[in-house]
Amino acid sequence: MISKQYTMKTIINLFETSVAKFSNNIYLWEKQNGKYEGTTYKQTYDLVYRFGAGLLALGLQKGDRVGLISEGRNAWIISEIGILYAGGIGRAEVA
Fold first, then answer.
1. Alpha-carbon separation of residue 63 from 9, 36, 56, 58, 89 (angstroms)
2. For the whole model, what pTM was predicted?
3. SS3 sequence, the chain?
């Protein structure tokens, strides 16, 4: 029997790989003022990083649990990934 070695990838690993490969491609779409606006992978990364840094500045510690209540919006994705970047554990609820 042949054994294959698998490497576990985290959501952060997958996100960063996608940002590196597709930085200028649209990642998220959202309707604003009656028109759909796109956010690229790089723009999303920058927003995620700023959100995670804000959580750390507010005192979030690794392993802290964070509740997230949101409609299905770009802010949900940005917040969820930002929580992971800050070392938190996210729990999302759809509003």
1. 19, 36, 12, 15, 6
2. 0.86
3. CCCCCCCCCCHHHHHHHHHHHHCCCEEEEEEECCEEEEEEHHHHHHHHHHHHHHHHHCCCCCCCEEEEEECCCHHHHHHHHHHHHCCCEEEEEEC
Write down all domains in the chain, each with its CATH number in brackets.
41-95 (3.40.50.980)
Q: What is the pLDDT of residue 13?
A: 95
Phi/psi at 35 (5° precision): -135, 140
pLDDT per residue as tens digits for the range 44-72: 999 999 999 999 999 999 999 999 888 88
Of 93 and 28, more confident: 28
